[in-house]
C-alpha cells in the first residue's frame, strides 16, 4: 500500500522508481490497483494534501514465504531511499509525496491521518465487504 503524489507525472515517476528497485531484487511488477476511498468526511486542509493511494502486485522470487517477506521489507526500505535520492520527494512537500504504508504478502495496512471513526468510512469500499469484515 503506497501513498503517491497527486500529480500524475510524479506518481508515474514514483512507480517507475519502485518497479526498477523491485526488478533489481528479481521481482516483476504485475500492476497497480487504485485503492477506493471516500474523502467526503475530510476537512479542507486534509483534502489539500490527500495522497493517491495505490496497492502494488508483483511476483515473488522462488524462495520460501519467510524469505519473500524479508525481501519485501528490504524492498520497502530501499525504494524509499532511492525515491528520496531521485528527488521525487524533495520537491513539493517532502517525504509524504511517496510513502510505503505496507508491503507484505500477509497483511494490508490502512493508514491515514484519520480519526478512528473516519477510517472505515474512508476505506469503506475495501473494508466494508464481508471478506474484509
UniProtKB/TrEMBL annotation:
Instruction: Identify the metabolic or biological route this protein is part of.
Output: Nitrogen metabolism; Amino-acid biosynthesis; L-glutamate biosynthesis via GLT pathway; L-glutamate from 2-oxoglutarate and L-glutamine (ferredoxin route): step 1/1; Energy metabolism; nitrogen metabolism
Report whether Transcription regulation shows up as a keyword of the record: no
Q: Name one GO biological process term.
A: glutamate biosynthetic process
| Its EC number(s) | 1.4.7.1
Q: Which enzyme class?
A: oxidoreductase
Sequence ranges assigned to domain Glutamine amidotransferase type-2 in this UniProt record: 1-131
The entry's keywords: 3Fe-4S, Amino-acid biosynthesis, Flavoprotein, FMN, Glutamate biosynthesis, Glutamine amidotransferase, Iron, Iron-sulfur, Metal-binding, Oxidoreductase
Recorded GO molecular functions are:
3 iron, 4 sulfur cluster binding; glutamate synthase (ferredoxin) activity; metal ion binding
Task: Please give the cofactor(s) recorded in the UniProt entry for this protein.
Answer: [3Fe-4S] cluster; FMN
Q: Which family does it belong to?
A: Belongs to the glutamate synthase family.
Per its UniProt record, what PANTHER family does this chain match? FAD NADPH DEHYDROGENASE/OXIDOREDUCTASE, GLUTAMATE SYNTHASE (NADH)
How is this protein named in the record?
A: glutamate synthase (ferredoxin)
Q: Which organism is it from?
A: Ilex paraguariensis
Organism taxonomic ancestry:
Eukaryota, Viridiplantae, Streptophyta, Embryophyta, Tracheophyta
Amino acid at each position: 500500500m503506497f501513498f503517491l503524489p497527486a500529480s500524475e507525472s510524479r506518481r508515474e515517476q514514483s512507480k517507475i522508481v519502485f518497479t526498477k528497485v523491485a526488478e533489481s531484487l528479481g521481482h516483476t511488477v504485475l500492476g497497480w490497483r487504485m485503492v477506493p476511498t471516500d474523502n467526503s468526511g475530510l476537512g479542507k486542509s486534509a483534502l489539500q494534501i490527500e495522497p493517491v493511494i495505490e496497492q502494488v502486485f508483483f511476483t515473488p522470487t522462488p524462495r520460501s514465504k519467510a524469505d519473500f517477506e524479508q525481501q519485501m521489507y528490504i524492498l520497502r526500505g530501499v525504494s524509499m531511499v532511492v525515491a528520496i535520492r531521485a528527488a521525487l520527494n524533495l520537491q513539493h512537500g517532502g517525504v509524504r509525496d511517496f510513502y510505503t504504508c505496507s508491503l507484505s504478502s500477509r497483511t494490508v495496512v490502512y493508514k491515514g491521518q484519520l480519526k478512528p471513526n473516519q477510517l472505515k468510512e474512508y476505506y469503506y469500499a475495501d473494508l466494508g465487504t464481508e471478506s474484509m469484515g
